[in-house]
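Chain A, query sequence.
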Amino acid sequence: MKGFWTYGPFKEFEDKITQRQFKMEQMEHLMALIEEDKTNQELILSGSVDEKLIASMIQLDIDKKMAILLGVPDGHEKTNDEISRETLLELIGKRTEDETR
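Chain A, predicted structure.
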Protein backbone atom coordinates (compact mmCIF):
# COMPACT_ATOMS: atom_id res chain seq x y z
CA MET A 1 0.00 0.00 0.00
CA LYS A 2 2.66 2.44 -1.05
CA GLY A 3 1.49 6.03 -1.04
CA PHE A 4 -1.51 5.37 1.18
CA TRP A 5 -0.59 7.85 3.89
CA THR A 6 -0.74 11.51 2.92
CA TYR A 7 0.29 13.08 6.25
CA GLY A 8 1.08 12.25 9.83
CA PRO A 9 3.62 9.99 11.53
CA PHE A 10 2.96 7.03 9.21
CA LYS A 11 3.66 9.23 6.17
CA GLU A 12 6.91 10.40 7.76
CA PHE A 13 7.89 6.80 8.46
CA GLU A 14 7.04 5.80 4.89
CA ASP A 15 9.10 8.71 3.54
CA LYS A 16 12.08 7.69 5.67
CA ILE A 17 11.86 4.11 4.37
CA THR A 18 11.72 5.36 0.78
CA GLN A 19 14.69 7.65 1.36
CA ARG A 20 16.75 4.85 2.92
CA GLN A 21 15.94 2.55 0.01
CA PHE A 22 17.09 5.23 -2.41
CA LYS A 23 20.32 5.78 -0.47
CA MET A 24 21.00 2.04 -0.38
CA GLU A 25 20.54 1.76 -4.16
CA GLN A 26 22.75 4.81 -4.65
CA MET A 27 25.43 3.24 -2.44
CA GLU A 28 25.25 -0.01 -4.42
CA HIS A 29 25.78 1.92 -7.67
CA LEU A 30 28.69 3.79 -6.11
CA MET A 31 30.35 0.60 -4.88
CA ALA A 32 29.93 -1.03 -8.30
CA LEU A 33 31.44 2.03 -9.94
CA ILE A 34 34.38 2.00 -7.51
CA GLU A 35 35.02 -1.67 -8.32
CA GLU A 36 34.85 -0.91 -12.05
CA ASP A 37 37.32 1.94 -11.50
CA LYS A 38 39.74 -0.35 -9.63
CA THR A 39 39.74 -2.98 -12.37
CA ASN A 40 40.12 -0.30 -15.01
CA GLN A 41 43.09 1.26 -13.17
CA GLU A 42 44.76 -2.15 -12.96
CA LEU A 43 44.23 -2.56 -16.69
CA ILE A 44 45.77 0.84 -17.36
CA LEU A 45 48.84 -0.06 -15.29
CA SER A 46 49.45 -3.59 -16.50
CA GLY A 47 47.68 -4.01 -19.85
CA SER A 48 48.94 -4.04 -23.40
CA VAL A 49 49.05 -0.85 -25.44
CA ASP A 50 45.62 -1.47 -26.96
CA GLU A 51 44.14 -2.37 -23.58
CA LYS A 52 45.59 0.80 -22.06
CA LEU A 53 44.07 2.89 -24.84
CA ILE A 54 40.64 1.34 -24.38
CA ALA A 55 40.92 1.55 -20.58
CA SER A 56 41.78 5.25 -20.76
CA MET A 57 38.67 5.87 -22.89
CA ILE A 58 36.58 3.87 -20.43
CA GLN A 59 38.09 5.90 -17.58
CA LEU A 60 36.54 9.05 -19.01
CA ASP A 61 33.13 7.39 -18.86
CA ILE A 62 33.75 6.16 -15.32
CA ASP A 63 34.78 9.65 -14.21
CA LYS A 64 31.64 11.14 -15.75
CA LYS A 65 29.42 8.55 -14.03
CA MET A 66 31.17 9.21 -10.73
CA ALA A 67 30.66 12.96 -11.06
CA ILE A 68 26.98 12.48 -11.85
CA LEU A 69 26.49 10.09 -8.96
CA LEU A 70 28.26 12.37 -6.49
CA GLY A 71 26.65 15.52 -7.87
CA VAL A 72 29.90 17.21 -8.82
CA PRO A 73 29.45 19.88 -11.51
CA ASP A 74 31.67 19.25 -14.52
CA GLY A 75 31.09 22.53 -16.37
CA HIS A 76 28.99 20.99 -19.14
CA GLU A 77 25.62 21.41 -17.46
CA LYS A 78 22.89 23.28 -19.23
CA THR A 79 22.25 26.75 -17.93
CA ASN A 80 19.40 27.23 -15.53
CA ASP A 81 16.21 27.66 -17.55
CA GLU A 82 14.24 29.21 -14.71
CA ILE A 83 12.56 32.52 -15.40
CA SER A 84 14.24 35.30 -13.49
CA ARG A 85 12.41 37.17 -10.75
CA GLU A 86 12.67 40.44 -12.69
CA THR A 87 10.98 38.90 -15.74
CA LEU A 88 8.14 37.56 -13.61
CA LEU A 89 7.64 40.96 -11.99
CA GLU A 90 7.54 42.63 -15.41
CA LEU A 91 4.95 40.15 -16.69
CA ILE A 92 2.80 40.59 -13.58
CA GLY A 93 3.08 44.38 -13.90
CA LYS A 94 2.04 44.27 -17.56
CA ARG A 95 -0.94 42.06 -16.77
CA THR A 96 -2.15 44.31 -13.97
CA GLU A 97 -1.76 47.36 -16.24
CA ASP A 98 -3.75 45.64 -19.00
CA GLU A 99 -6.48 44.61 -16.56
CA THR A 100 -6.86 48.13 -15.13
CA ARG A 101 -7.43 49.64 -18.58
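Residues 1-75 form one domain. The two ends are 54 Å apart (CA to CA).
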